[in-house]
Design a protein that fits this description.
Blueprint lengths: L3 E2 L7 E2 L9 E7 L10 E7 L19 E3 L2 E9 L2 E10 L1 E3 L18
């Protein structure tokens, strides 16, 4: 579970964002148009007060299209022994259904339309 601290017999607490102090939640998103398998999915961190809820599914589509709100991409240097490489931290503050205005169904992070 991304962004959480496991503690035996205690509730799971999400990791906190260093900048905003908000809890971090994770979600994995797939890009079906990617040419290489390793580029097909990305794990996002959401820095928001409540766990984001994806919008309702669209009939006839095998996936749920979403628009990511407040998305940022930040480089991070990784090392392991003598090897060094660059990774990316991808974050957002929420997600909405395509075509939905802010505040409509699925627009408020962690809140369902019901």
């Amino acid at each position: 579970m991304c962004g959480s601290r496991w503690a035996r017999n205690r509730p799971v607490r999400p990791r906190l964002d260093e900048v905003t102090g908000r809890p971090l939640f994770c979600g994995t998103f797939t890009d079906f148009s990617a040419e290489k398998d390793r580029e097909r999915s990305v794990t996002m961190e959401f820095a928001c007060a409540h766990q984001p809820v994806p919008p309702e599914s669209v009939p006839g589509l095998p996936f749920r299209p979403v628009l990511l709100e407040g998305m940022t991409v930040q480089p991070r240097a990784e090392t392991s022994g003598q090897a060094e490489w660059l990774t990316w931290v991808v974050r957002a503050v929420g997600m909405t259904a395509p075509g939905a205005a802010a505040g409509e169904s699925g627009a408020v992070p962690g809140r369902s339309a019901a």
